[in-house]
Design brief:
Distance between the termini: 28 Å
Number of strands: 15
Strand order of the largest sheet: 6-5-4-7-10
Helix content: 25-40%
């Protein structure tokens, strides 16, 4: 006796349609506007199937036509693109002095931006973290002419490690208001959409993977050299988090000439290469750019950075190390070359060393990329 197919089971028409829909939507995200003919060529779908698919996606509000392609024999071919209004996301970066929020449409076009200044350790701030996040997002939404109902995802980058099991923030005493066990639920309630809290350096690594120096690499380390110091480790294309989310917290890493970090005190790699420490190398009062203009200081910074990188390279053997953050930006290629020279001759693998060249805030860029990935998974699911 024949048995019927289970709705939604692999291989059924419904599932195959959903797979084709998603393939076309992903193509439009990656390539921008395409003609029906080009979509058929890229997917291998027949002309009738492609037409039916595009009509179905247009009826669902996911694609629309945007002019036509001229200059060829015959009628002009219509161009199809993702409908920007199909969904919107919020991307945020939180730091000890405030919160920055972006709102973008499903294509990644930024429509609104708002910064809320707030001292994270102030008593009147630590108990109203969710309200401050809402204030930043609301300001960005107003600029975009949107409301909470338009949001499909929100990603927030913060310093410190995020426990992968609980989603709680760890190792971030300078952000006391972010340690609440109910914070994710509180944030989802005030924003009206699911919220992901992610380590800021991990998000910077996402930005490098999509738009920066790590686009062609599956194994790389992003070393963040700023007021705080940390790393994101990507192995075989997957972010390494560790048992408690603490993978990459190299600011605490014990190194020669650096005191051990005990009980939350200063020490470790961060006490050698943070922006604050680097600014003091020429006697204090200098900017990072002024310090890096001093050859002796530049050599010392490179030696310290190379010592920390060598410890990481010996453990994870990356193809690439990206130097990011204000210290790396101030040092530029001169710093990169000196770090590379310091690593030469060591009994270690020799990764490529690059300085991040991303424009703007890489943490916000990574948060936006992550939020778009989540929103597209929800909005583009036509199964």
């Amino acid at each position: 006796m024949a048995t019927g197919s289970t709705p939604g089971a692999p291989g059924t028409p419904r599932v195959l349609r959903a797979m084709n829909d998603r393939a076309v939507l992903d193509l439009l995200v990656a390539h921008g506007p395409l003609t029906r003919t080009r979509i058929g060529e890229l997917t291998g779908l027949s002309k009738p199937t492609t037409s039916q698919l595009l009509n179905r996606l247009a009826a669902a509000g996911l694609v629309h036509t945007t002019g036509s392609l001229s200059g060829r024999p015959g009628p002009n071919a219509q161009l199809y693109e993702i409908d920007p209004g199909a969904g919107h996301v919020a991307a945020l970066s939180a730091d000890p002095t405030g919160i920055t929020a972006l709102v973008a449409d499903i294509t990644g076009t930024v429509l609104g931006r708002q910064r809320v200044e707030a001292d994270a350790v102030a008593e009147d701030v630590r108990h109203r973290t969710a309200q401050l996040v809402a204030e930043a997002v609301d300001g960005a939404l107003r600029q975009a002419g949107l409301g909470h109902d338009d949001l499909r995802a929100a990603v927030i980058g913060t310093p410190g490690a995020i426990d992968p099991h609980t989603g709680q923030l760890r190792y971030a005493p300078h952000l006391p208001g972010w340690h609440s066990r109910t914070l994710r639920d509180d944030l989802a309630a005030v924003l009206g959409t699911p919220v992901v809290i992610e380590n800021d350096v991990n998000l910077a690594a996402v930005a490098e993977q999509h738009e920066g120096a790590a686009q062609d690499f599956d194994n790389y380390v992003l070393t963040w050299l700023d007021e705080g110091v940390g790393a994101a480790i990507v192995l075989d294309g997957t972010l390494l988090r560790g048992a408690t989310g603490g993978a990459g917290e190299i600011g605490y890493m014990p190194l020669p000439n650096a005191p051990l970090v005990r009980g939350g005190g200063d020490g470790g790699f961060e006490s050698l290469v943070s922006a604050y420490v680097v600014r003091e190398l020429t006697g204090g009062g200098a900017t990072l750019a002024e310090v890096m203009a001093d050859d002796a200081a530049l050599d010392e910074v490179a030696r310290r950075i190379a010592t920390g990188i060598a410890a990481v390279v010996a453990v994870v053997d990356p193809e690439l190390v990206v130097l990011s953050g204000s210290v790396a930006q101030a040092g530029g290629d001169k710093l990169r070359a000196r770090v590379e020279e310091e690593l030469t001759g060591l009994a270690l693998p020799r990764p490529h060393i690059r300085i991040s060249e991303l424009d703007g805030d890489p943490i916000l860029t990574g948060a936006l990329r992550s939020a778009l990935t989540q929103a597209r998974d929800r909005v583009f699911d036509t199964g």
